[in-house]
Amino acid sequence: MKAVCWMGTGKVETLTVADPALLNPHDAIIKITRTAICGSDLHLYDGFIPTMESGDILGHEFMGIVEEVGPEVTNLQRGDRVVVPFTIACGNCLFCKKKIWSACDNTNPNAHLMEAAYGYSGSGLFGYSHMMGGYAGGQAQYARVPFANVGPLKIESDLPDEKVLFLSDIFPTGYMAAENAQIEPGDTVAVWGCGPVGQFAIASAFMLGAARVIAIDRLEERVELARSLGAITVNYSDEDVSVLTALKDLTGGVGPDSCIDAVGLEAHSAQLQGVYDKVKTALMMETDRPSVLRQAIQAVRKGGTLSIPGVYGGLLDKVPFGAAFGKGITMKMGQTNMHNYMKPLLERIESGQIDPSYIISHRITLDEAPEMYKIWRDKKEKVTKIVIDPWMEKRAA
Amino acid sequence: MSNALNEKPNAESLPVSASAGILLDGRYIPPPQDKDGKIWVRTTALVQADAEELYTVWRNVEAAPLWQEELTQVTATGPTTSRWVMESRGKTIEWDSEILADEPGKRIAWRSIGGDSENAGEVIFENAPGGRGTMVTVLQEFRMGKMTSAWETLVGRSPKQAIIENLRHFKALLETGEIPRTQGQPHEDRGMIGKMKGSAYGENIKTRREAIALQVELDPCLRKIRPHLLPRS
Asked: How far apart are the first and last CA of chain A?
């Protein structure tokens, strides 16, 4: 089959590799009908996540048709149409029972690597480094899905793939971000990053009762999308815009009740700290560039909540913890507990409350993926979301 | 007992001693340190299953290749003795083992009695506080020089890590009916460095896949214990 392989930092190739096979009793093989490139794949592309190995198949947002199931998968059959969550969960360990699915004890075969770095291991993820399980990803024509008895969500309606594909990661991730923001009716919520997760966090914040949402980004096409959802937008690349001042101005000096960092470890900053973090990460004195995190801690109101769906990987420098303590803020974060959200969010899509396909900017073939990684990384061509049809030979006009 | 605090609505009474020497009169005891040609490893896992079930699977030594790395065969040679065969990087290692203590549902202790490996160990099954499953604690000792151990670590799995991973596999098998794996999945050629790292990650170490033939023979025994988790074949 064809698959998008990580071949080193800044190097991605579409290659022909072996088809996946059933390896364990709870496995399923999925023929992929749609898959996507995630913003967090750019962290892999840029070499920010350790334990990627040359030859790894990328991709963790995919859906398709069940091709084959292992002997212990009783809930799925060949021909079923499913969306696959990017976190793999066993369903039986202490954490799955507590519905903290992304902390599953039993799905990371390389748990010892993550234990060494983080103290404990989270669940395995598709296509996201050996530390996170080393599972082959879904930017391919087929994928093996472990614990298929627990994860995949069956789509029984005839909704097109594009409307349900983002249940695999970014819609639930944006939704959990809004849930973690502990929004109360009437609240003002600030969201950093108007990429796909930011978009769904904005939409979900409104769904959960926010009166106002303030969206922050530097790319005009993205703030435009945010405005289409009803958010107030602050473009920090505009002349004389200071995000902290803007947030005070827009909240009567109080600050947002909740702040959502939908950017993560590769934040861009127009200020001196941006240069500081670039130098420190280049010298390997710091692993992440936390300028959004710093700003969000500074911006959130006293006793407010900071929710962090953006990915962080390692050690952060100059995080204003004194401000966090001084204001008594709450921080909530982590990989998405996918399995809690897929079904309720599918119902919202089915009932017409939201059509997640509005964020798609590019529809491409597998062969075009390597070039698109580069274009997206360099923020050219106004990319908001790239969807791949792994069986399409030529891009439709 | 101190009377300093009388209000502890959910506190449970402490065992006098517990878990292969983890607790003594309420004090935490650290694991033994490597010395005098002995290497120690103590590891623990919280498993969502009954102590009885866990004991039964552990005590069934012939099923050990289902969840212990690189074991190819274990044969019972008597009520408390067994012969263990391991393949590690093309080398066959064999030894005999005997069970020294056997308390159903609670504890098993063993030692090797001749062969290529000198080892002794103990496993304890205890109810976790709050009814949250069973705490399984393993204390294992190898007679092995530090140099040998360092060499094993360099070329494959360190003996200590193997014990930790084996308990992890045991937990996964008992909780889910399988051990997670990626061996055999597609990828593009990894090149030299990638292959070396694969070995450092432990991804090349043989686990249950190779034991499937054996599993079929052992199924009836395990099926009785956890029928809902094993392949119906």
From this structure: 25
One-letter amino acid at A378 equals D
CATH of the domain at A126: 3.90.180.10
User: A53 vs B190: CB contact, 8 Å cut-off?
Assistant: yes
Spatial neighbors of A272 by CB under 8 A, at least 6 apart, are: none
Query: CA A93, CA B173: separation in Å to the nearest integer?
Result: 11
| Listed residues A333, A349, A373: the one ending a domain | A333
- B161 vs A112: CB contact, 8 Å cut-off? yes
Considering the domain architecture, whether residues A250 and A357 belong to the same structural domain is answered as no
Measured distance between the N- and C-terminal CA atoms of chain B, rounded to whole angstroms: 55
A326 located within any domain:
yes
Residues 6+ apart with CB under 8 A from A337: A87, A99, A100, A101, A102, A176
ipTM: 0.90
- Residue-wise pLDDT for B203-221, tens only, equals 777 655 444 444 544 555 5
The predicted-structure confidence for B23-34, as pLDDT tens digits, reads as follows 877 888 888 888
For residue A16, what are the domain limits?
2-169+337-388
**Residue A107 belongs to some domain of the structure:** yes
Question: Would you mind telling me the total number of residues written for chain B in this entry?
Answer: 233
Provide the domain count of chain A: 2
Alpha-carbon gap, residue A357 to A384, rounded angstroms: 11
Q: How far is A59 from chain B (nearest CA, A)?
A: 13
